[in-house]
Design brief:
Blueprint: H1 4-45, E1 52-56, E2 63-68, E3 78-81, H2 83-91, E4 95-96, H3 102-105
Length: about 110
């Protein structure tokens, strides 16, 4: 191993390994930059949240709650509606979400 030529050969081998590692790391960086750019484009292309949401039950038929559009508790079975339909649902007995209180925001007074 004290042979200068074999030492140089080992250093050249180490250089090739490190160049391969660096190329792989650069590919990983490019892939991550691409993923982040796609994520940003997806967020920008997302439609705006509806002003009001009516959440359906498990059957998908009956309405269970009326939510304000940005409510964190709206669930995945919600459908965006306009102000009049949200007020009509409250008048028909659909419960107002206890977290976002759309009845207060809609000026709905029970009774």
């Amino acid at each position: 191993m004290n042979d200068p030529e074999s030492r140089l050969a080992l250093l050249r081998f180490l250089e090739r390994v490190q160049e391969r590692d660096l190329a792989r790391t650069r590919r990983w960086i490019a892939d991550e930059e691409r993923r982040q750019a796609e994520h940003r484009r997806g967020l920008l292309a997302r439609p705006p949240a509806p002003d009001w949401v009516i959440e359906r039950g498990l059957s998908g038929q009956e309405a269970v709650y009326v939510h304000a559009g940005g409510c964190w508790n709206a669930g995945r079975r919600g459908k965006g509606v306009d102000r009049d339909l949200a007020r009509r649902a409250l008048a028909d007995g659909v419960k107002a979400c206890p977290q976002c209180r759309p009845d207060t925001e809609l000026g709905f007074v029970d009774g």
